[in-house]
Amino acid sequence: AQSVTQPDIHITVSEGASLELRCNYSYGATPYLFWYVQSPGQGLQLLLKYFSGDTLVQGIKGFEAEFKRSQSSFNLRKPSVHWSDAAEYFCAVGARGSNYQLIWGAGTKLIIKP
Amino acid sequence: DAGVIQSPRHEVTEMGQEVTLRCKPISGHNSLFWYRQTMMRGLELLIYFNNNVPIDDSGMPEDRFSAKMPNASFSTLKIQPSEPRDSAVYFCASSPRVGLAGGPPEQFFGPGTRLTVL
User: Fold this and answer.
1) What's the half-sphere exposure (Cβ side, CA atoms, 13 Å) at B24?
2) Does B9 touch chain A (CB under 8 A)?
3) How far is Cα A104 from Cα A20, in angstroms, rounded to an integer?
């Protein structure tokens, strides 16, 4: 069965520091991979997605993620965080052949220290 | 584009009352999703519609929950009777018919309805 694990419930980083949020998935083939962000009181917004091709994908707001098949990972990174990046981040996996089903991670809450 | 519109944004009700949550998807989108988000259970898919037809309602917790999509621009999620454990944020999301390379398309989320059942 497909599953998504975000091992960190909370992460605290200083403003201006680099960020890496972890996402591991379990799936028998190459999945479709997504990162969404949820700002306080808001719905989820797509940051980036990976379907195929270049394993390093660029997203909005200066985020990027790298698909590593050997590690079953799709970690989200940003070189320098801003206070406005404080939010909850969700990794999701979609199955090939499915036109709707996404398996969601539990989310990682990012806290920014001034 | 106004995005996905949900109403009300906040709802406080008493146990046993009927609650109706409303959603207007993005025009032209073919799929609509209702999710529930709680601290304990995270984000749960309740039901998925494609072209106004319910495709998968396996996430609907029990018979007290029902969802309808009478046309392409409107959907409701109803809880009757409501219970305190239904307190959560309920999201509606919509997506176009297909995504790139045949995979799941991007889902566009509304701002959510925060439901509190006393």
Assistant:
1) 7
2) no
3) 18
